[in-house]
């Protein structure tokens, strides 16, 4: 590794080294990740691409601490995610990470306003002005008293983006966040996701199948054969 690249990796917000993961299949272990290395600097964005089944969601889930790796390391700031227990991982997700999935995962019994505030309240970082700014930029200010079922898909995903960014996470993990939306709506939601992540100072790691959407991020990397090519 060159000195410049070494320095960049050491200064990274997210550092993944030698990450491996197999699932148990009927014919024995199914290796999905075979030594993945990845570094992401604070405030930058990376699109994670690769064929269906190449392990993109698996990698994102491991970074989010939602599943356990077989070997390798994941560091976010100076926290070694792979060494945390379940409580530690939950605390990391609350304090440091924002997550947006293809399914909007809003709480149906809470209004848009309360959904927007939920993660920030759980993180102990609720900021009324920032929530209002997010609602305004996401075009949700007139919808704060509605419930998720009263919103369109695009509106629901904008709530999910605002909810994830309300605590000002260091790292936003997004798994095909616009996969459920039509092209024009998805494009607009992604533009907002990137703009507001930059405003919040959040780095973005996003899974997408779309080269057009991936082109909007700072860098692209492709998973193939269990390894990541940058
Ligand atoms: N819980 C599980 N148990 C067993 N196998 C799994 C499990 N989760 C994923 N897999 C398998 O691991 C491989 C990688 O799955 P993953 O969902 O990470 O791929 P992906 O690149 O995100 O795919 P897609 O683009 O289709 O969403 C696939 O072959 C999948 O069938």
Automatic annotation (TrEMBL):
InterPro entries from the UniProt entry: AAA+_ATPase (IPR003593), ABC_transporter-like_ATP-bd (IPR003439), ABC_transporter-like_CS (IPR017871), ABC_transpr_LolD-like (IPR015854), MacB-like_ATP-bd (IPR017911), P-loop_NTPase (IPR027417)
Keywords: ATP-binding, Nucleotide-binding, Transport
Taxonomy, superkingdom: Bacteria
Gene Ontology CC annotation, any one: plasma membrane
One family name in Pfam for this protein: ABC_tran
Any one GO molecular function term: ATP binding
Record-annotated ABC transporter domain positions: 14-230
Coiled-coil region: none
Family: Belongs to the ABC transporter superfamily.
Protein name as catalogued: ABC transporter ATP-binding protein
Source species: Methylosinus sporium
């Amino acid at each position: 590794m060159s000195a410049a690249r070494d320095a960049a990796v050491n200064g990274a917000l997210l550092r993944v080294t030698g990450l491996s993961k197999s699932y148990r299949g009927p014919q024995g272990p199914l290796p999905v990740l075979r030594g993945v290395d990845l570094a992401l600097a604070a405030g930058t964005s990376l699109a994670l691409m690769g064929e269906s089944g190449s392990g993109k969601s698996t990698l994102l889930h491991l970074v989010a601490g939602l599943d356990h790796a077989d070997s390798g390391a994941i560091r976010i700031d100076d926290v070694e995610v792979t060494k945390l227990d379940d409580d530690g991982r939950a605390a990391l997700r609350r304090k440091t990470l924002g997550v947006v999935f293809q399914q909007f995962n809003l709480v149906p019994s809470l209004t848009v306003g309360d959904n927007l505030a939920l993660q920030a309240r759980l993180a102990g970082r609720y900021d009324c002005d920032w929530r209002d700014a997010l609602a305004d930029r996401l075009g949700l200010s007139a919808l704060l008293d509605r419930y998720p079922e009263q919103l369109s898909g695009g509106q629901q995903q904008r709530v999910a983006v605002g909810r994830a960014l309300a605590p000002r996470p260091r790292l936003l993990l997004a798994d095909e966040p616009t996969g459920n939306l039509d092209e024009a709506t998805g494009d607009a939601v992604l533009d907002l996701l990137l703009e507001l992540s930059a405003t919040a100072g959040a780095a973005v790691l996003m899974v997408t199948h779309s080269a057009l959407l991936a082109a909007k991020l700072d860098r692209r990397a492709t998973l193939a054969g269990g390894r990541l090519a940058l």
